Amino acid sequence: MTHPHKIVSREEWLKARKAHLKNEKALTRMRDLVSAERRALPWVKVEKDFVFDTTEGKKSLAQLFGRNSQLIIHHFMWRWDLGQGCVSCSMEADHAEGAIVHLANHDVSYVRVSRAPLAELTAYKQRMGWTAEWVSSYGSDFNYDYHVSFTKEELAKGEVYYNYQMTKDGFDELPGLSVFVKDEDGNVHHTYSSYGRGNEEVNGAFIYLDITPKGRNEKEIMDWVQRRDEYPVAGGAPACCHADKSA
Q1: R_g of the chain, CA atoms, integer Å
Q2: 62: which DSSP letter?
Q3: Within 13 Å and on the Cβ side, how many CA atoms surround 35?
Q4: If you write DSSP's letter for every residue of 129-170 in order, what string do you get?
Q5: Would you call 178 exposed, middle or buried from its count of C-beta atoms within 10 A (0-12, 13-18, 19+)?
Q6: Rounded to whole angstroms, how far apart are CA atoms 244 and 241?
Q7: Alpha helix (H) ranges present in the chain?
Q8: Whose C-alpha in 22, 74, 111, 227 is 20 to 30 A from the C-alpha of 241?
């Protein structure tokens, strides 16, 4: 096996590792700073009455909080062209499943929202074996207002507003995360949204791969990701939101 890396003594390796540790610690401190800035962002009161289809009937945004005062919404990208969920959103959902119990016991509710008929979401949820609440914003302005769904008119212009800028990404649905808080008077406020690669840190597989010698080993972003029930035992063609658009 050939490789581009030097083979050194343990002492030489330790010297290089300690040098790299300085940057790792700097990144940790920067992450703490960014997290503090995020928590200090101003809030926007949600004035519109959004209604979602759920397995328990119609629910308002405020009702999605359950008993908690904080709510994380996973804007789950539904692939209308494929009749199933986006692979990257599916991967993110896999990771969230293990965190839900910890979030729920730390005053945070987690809900997936997609602009697709509830029956389709429920069927896909069962296929994937997920437990998180997944509701439909089909027929609501919610996805449009939080810039993860786009009208035919917007798409016809060749650019849509996504990740706080105009982009030429031509999908009618895109992924994101939004955070809301409910105050003591029951008012709901929007505190944060992130899109695109801004959500990478909630996907632990990325971080695990980043500490391996080959890293993510991708030619195009996420070209290796597949839905959990589509991975072959060995080999197989990769798929992603961009790669399987023409499937």
Answers
A1: 20
A2: G
A3: 7
A4: T--SEEEE-TTSSHHHHTTSB--HHHHHTT-EEETTEEE---
A5: buried
A6: 6
A7: 10-39, 87-104, 118-128, 142-145, 152-156, 204-210
A8: 111
What pLDDT is recorded for position 233? 63
Contact status, residue 76 vs residue 93, Cβ threshold 8 Å: yes
Residues 204-228 have pLDDT tens digits of 898 999 999 898 898 888 889 999 9
With contact defined as beta carbons under 8 Å apart, do 223 and 243 qualify? yes
Give the model's confidence band at 4: pLDDT under 50 very low, under 70 low, under 90 confident, else very high: confident
List the structure tokens of 19: 């040098």
Handedness of CA 135, 137, 142, 146 (dihedral sign): positive
Contacts of 226 (CB under 8 A, 6+ apart): 87, 236, 238, 239
pTM score, two decimals?
0.88
CB atoms within 10 A of CB 95: 13
* CA 48 from centroid of its chain's CA atoms: 24
Cα 63 to Cα 72, 109, 126, 181, distances in angstroms: 13, 11, 23, 12
Specify burial of residue 75 (Cβ count, 10 A radius: 0-12, 13-18, 19+).
buried
Note the residue count of the chain: 247
Handedness of CA 208, 205, 111, 223 (dihedral sign): positive
Which amino acid makes up residue 77?
M
Q: Which amino acid is at 102?
A: H
Provide the β-strand partners of residue 178.
73, 193
Handedness of CA 207, 210, 213, 217 (dihedral sign): positive
